[in-house]
Structure to design on (332 residues):
């Protein structure tokens, strides 16, 4: 139903129809990964760990408290907005948990937050935004360490031949072609990880989880695994690079579908663990926020980044423009 994510003709009729048709298949996938997504559990523990560190790192603004606002599952932004109002929150940071910016993810979430704010559902909050952080050294370090753990599962003599297959959620070509920044930002994260690893292994960036019949950005992760097997490159590590915790995309698609496929093709294939409760990652989250708070209080930065101010050159969604203005004024 999210017109900011994927505008459909006759959205109100077509969207529920597509969702209903898709539900049984997706219900089965969630059942297979243990009856639901662990994304809220991980996000909550990351938030709690981050706040504990932040109280030390930036005592001027302590105590810190995290709230989770999801776009499509509970706790929805609307419910979180109401809770923040009840709690009398006066200052908040919208901290996207997508490391790399896409208008289909962070953009849609900020649009929703803006709608709730404009409707007065959040009370009087001064907002600033951390809109992207895909090259933060702590994030890069945490991903790199998980790759090193996966590499250690291979026999030392074969280790340097292992192909690192970075896998990120794909985008419809219609989104890419209107100038969305995500593809560039994911690429830069991959490059930063490879620099940190000293370019020890060959690698590719591929794209997963496309839905529906329209054209999506490729190469698709599943096809890449088959292609590598065909070329005799049978040692592979799958690296999730655009997700910060486990959920259906890692636990079902990567672990159940693709790893199984790869093993059937005679490959030795492992996955770099998701960041989940990585202490290095949680420290990185705290560091990103502490830096933001201190830059903001010194007047070095405004409520939003310079880059966030620019709409995609092909954007025709008026909400994007209103949202950017609203956050640039601190949510007023
Ligand atoms: C970087 C991350 C993501 C991008 C980019 C993204 C784009 C995108 N997604 C859909 C449609 C669906 N996404 C679904 C679930 C889902 N997607 C992401 C991340 C990105 N999506 C996450 C973390 C999750 C949550 C999974 C979980 O908690 O288990 C779903 C629901 C599941 C399903 O039906 O497959 C849909 C649908 C589109 C259309 C899109 C780009 C336009
Ligand atoms: S789609 Fe990117 S700013 Fe609107
Ligand atoms: Fe998605």
């Amino acid at each position: 139903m999210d017109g900011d994510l994927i505008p459909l003709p006759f959205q109100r009729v077509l969207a529920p129809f597509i969702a209903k048709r898709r539900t049984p298949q997706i219900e089965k996938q969630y059942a297979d990964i243990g009856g639901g997504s662990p994304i809220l559990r991980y996000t909550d523990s990351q938030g709690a760990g981050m706040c504990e560190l932040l109280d030390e790192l930036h005592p001027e603004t302590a105590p810190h408290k995290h709230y989770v606002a999801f776009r499509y599952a509970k706790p929805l932004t609307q419910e979180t907005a109401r809770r923040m109002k009840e709690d009398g929150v006066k200052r908040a940071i919208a901290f996207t948990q997508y490391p790399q910016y896409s208008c289909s993810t962070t953009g849609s979430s900020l649009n929703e937050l803006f709608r709730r704010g404009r409707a007065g559902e959040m009370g009087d909050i001064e907002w600033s935004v951390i809109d992207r952080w895909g090259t933060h050294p702590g994030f890069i370090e945490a991903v790199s360490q998980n790759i090193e753990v996966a590499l250690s599962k291979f026999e030392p003599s074969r280790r340097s031949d292992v192909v690192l297959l970075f896998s990120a959620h794909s985008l419809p070509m219609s989104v890419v072609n209107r100038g969305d920044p995500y593809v560039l930002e994911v690429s830069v994260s991959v490059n930063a990880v490879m620099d940190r690893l000293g370019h020890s292994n060959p690698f590719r960036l591929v794209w997963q989880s496309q839905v529906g019949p329209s054209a999506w950005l490729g190469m698709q992760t599943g096809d890449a695994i088959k292609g590598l097997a065909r070329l005799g490159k049978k040692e592979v590590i799958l690296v999730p690079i655009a997700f910060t915790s486990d959920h259906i995309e890692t636990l079902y698609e990567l672990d159940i579908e693709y790893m199984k496929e790869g093993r059937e093709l005679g490959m030795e294939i492992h996955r770099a663990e998701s960041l989940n409760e990585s202490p290095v990652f949680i420290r990185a989250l705290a560091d990103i926020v502490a830096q933001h708070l201190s830059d903001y209080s010194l007047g070095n930065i405004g409520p939003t980044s310079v880059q966030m101010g620019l709409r995609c050159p092909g954007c025709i969604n008026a909400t994007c423009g209103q949202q950017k203005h609203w956050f640039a004024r601190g949510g007023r």
Q: What stands out?
A: Residues 5-6, 22, 26, 37, 39, 98, 102, 104-105, 169, 171-172, 175, 211, 242-243, 247-249 surround L6N33NVT (ligand 1) (CB under 6 Å).
